[in-house]
Amino acid sequence: MTSLRPDLAIIAKNVRPGSRILDVGCGDGQLMAALRDHKQVDARGLELDARDVATAVSRGLSVIQGDADTDLAAYPDGSFDYAILSQTLQTTKRPDLVLDHLLRIGREAFVSFPNFAQWRIRFAHMFGGQMPVTEQLPHRWYDTPNIHHVTIDDFRAFLKERGVIIEGQWFLSGNKPRKEGMANLLAQHAVFLLRR
Amino acid sequence: MAGRMQGDERFGLDRKIRLLGPVKLDSGAEFAPIDFAYETYGMLNAEKSNAILICHALTGDQYVASTHPVTGKNGWWTRMVGPDKPIDPARYCIISINVMGSCMGSSGPASIDPSTGGAYGMAFPVITIPDMVRAQAILLDHLGIETLAAVVGGSMGGMQALSWAALYPDRVRSAVVIASTARHSAQNIAFHEVGRQAIMADPRWNNGAYYGREAPASGLAVARMAAHITYLSEAGLTEKFGRRLQNRDAKSFGFDADFQVESYLRYQGLSFVDRFDANSYLYITRAMDYFDLADMHEGVLAKAFAATKSRFCLISFDSDWLYPTAESRRIVHALNAAGAAASFIELSSPFGHDSFLLDAPEMNRIVDGFLRAGEGQ
Asked: ipTM score of the complex?
């Protein structure tokens, strides 16, 4: 599982072997395949992009072409041990409703997202006066799929407001894990493990 | 193992068998004996674990990948079935059965009723899609095949694949459902009713008693023409024909087939009547119209799949307005609710419902990967 994207590697490491997972925004199924092959996980996926779905299905994964904003309602309560939303939260129309569904469908939920308060992004905005274009967020304002940028502190405040319990949290700078201290300023990515 | 089936008359091309049955029909009636016309390609392995059933569409038949005896044309799904294709006889024992109610050798309204010595005609019982599947299960019992590695079908074939998984949850490991639906919509029923009325309005139909006389060919041709439009898309028709005229420079100011599209449809209608029985068309369209898998499960589609252990792969096409993507999505939602392992993808093609019969490399790639992943089970 060494070739996984760092946030996916964190999720993969912390998923219980033999569990049932739903990967929302699963892309071509990289994480699902790793979990299936190394942790005997029963993995299901949801992905918007047809080409990614075709690749995932031809790898033998169970992936449905659909939209996190509209298709999660069809999944029954508590039907998975984990619902996973990696690098997808900021692309949804209603991240709040998507999170509600994740915590309803999965007994626990992994959520990873790029931290919009990381200092490079703050600097680009403060001194450049333009929407930041960074290595981690390479899109321009008009073509970005990220329509709901969020910071680590925003996300924590949101969880608190909703009474969602944080079971675990991990932070990344580049590909390296970093400590929790000053994560909102220093971390590029965050991974949360949540439950109701 | 290679010689396992040699000399076994049950397997091979152009097989025919009469079985005692009976098939218990949804109408409450029982039907017996049942004739089956079917083909098999490839060898059943020692574990009998590599059988794939291919279910055909309304006007399809068992000649999936071999020459059609009437038209002389290649099989209807040689793009999917054959050497080095996703469904390869080198790996699978492939079975295709003419559905009950049809006219290519399995029991249907044109078959001889042993109790009268004449054709059944309208005395043939009204059947449903699940009835077709129950009949197929009787043939598979005869072939000694308990479990299917996969049931694969497009259009009405997909309805059978869904019904297989619902009726025989332990006998189906994987189901591939392409360009299909779990129920016929009002619009689907409406188009079929146009076709049936065209047949029944043909005086030669004679309440179905036309065997040995002239068949209601003009009625059946019109039925086919109307249905054929639903298999294509507006964009496809525009691209293929536009408003181009047929073998003429100007409009005739008459009712000849001035337009290429008219000439094409007339040809489709006329060539169809050579290979299809009008009563079979009535019975099979009726079976499709009656089809609503949720209806049999208190209106909840997910309940149809409650016991299923099958993996499912659904594919729809964006230009298919006969069984649009929304219908596949409805099935997928039900499968999710039932906790079944389901995959679904909408593919892009300009050719409407018929896309599944045409060259679709992405469809082949998906089916290939899906079936291979099931082989390890």
From this structure: 0.88
